[in-house]
Amino acid sequence: MASVGVQRRSMQMVPRLGSEADMTKEAVEQIRARVAYQKSLLAAKGHSIDEEVKEMWRWVNITFMVGIPIVVASAVYSFFFDVHPHRFDGELPEYMHVRNKEFPWECSDCDIFDGACWKKCRAEKQK
């Protein structure tokens, strides 16, 4: 069994149990340590926030000038020129009409959007 006071993580995220003042003091120390660590990382990067903002706007412009026109052109091509097969009319081959169990509606052998099958099923029920 592990000891209660042993810290098993490399960074402790919550203060240890104790009095409210001790917990508040430890939480403030943790926040200050994280802020100091973030400041050291920011200082080590070697470029300013203005350069980061400039780089961000560069990628925003690339997105709007290159990415969005490609997406629109692809959508237009796909809508008008791309040939995609539709489901053929008529009876389905045996291997495409496999049912492991019946559907839970009145015409239990018909797909929900198969209008011809529904008409045929209801006509048979009327007889």
Structural overview:
By secondary structure, the protein is an all-alpha fold. Helix content is 55%, strand content 0%. The protein has 3 helices and no strands. It has helices spanning 20-45, 49-80, 115-126.
Provide the fold topology:
Layout: H1 20-45, H2 49-80, H3 115-126
Distance between the termini: 77 Å
Quote the beta fraction.
Answer: under 5%
Gross morphology is elongated
SSE string, helix = H, strand = E? HHH
The class by helix and strand makeup works out as mainly alpha
Oligomeric nature of the chains: single chain
Q: What is the CA-atom radius of gyration, in angstroms?
A: 33 Å
Approximate helicity band: 55-70%
Q: Count of helices?
A: 3
Sequence stretches where pLDDT stays below 50 over 5 or more residues: none
Total strands: the figure is 0
Can you summarize the main beta sheet? none
Give me a quick take on this structure:
This protein is an all-alpha fold and 127 residues long.
Defining key terms:
elongated; about 130 residues
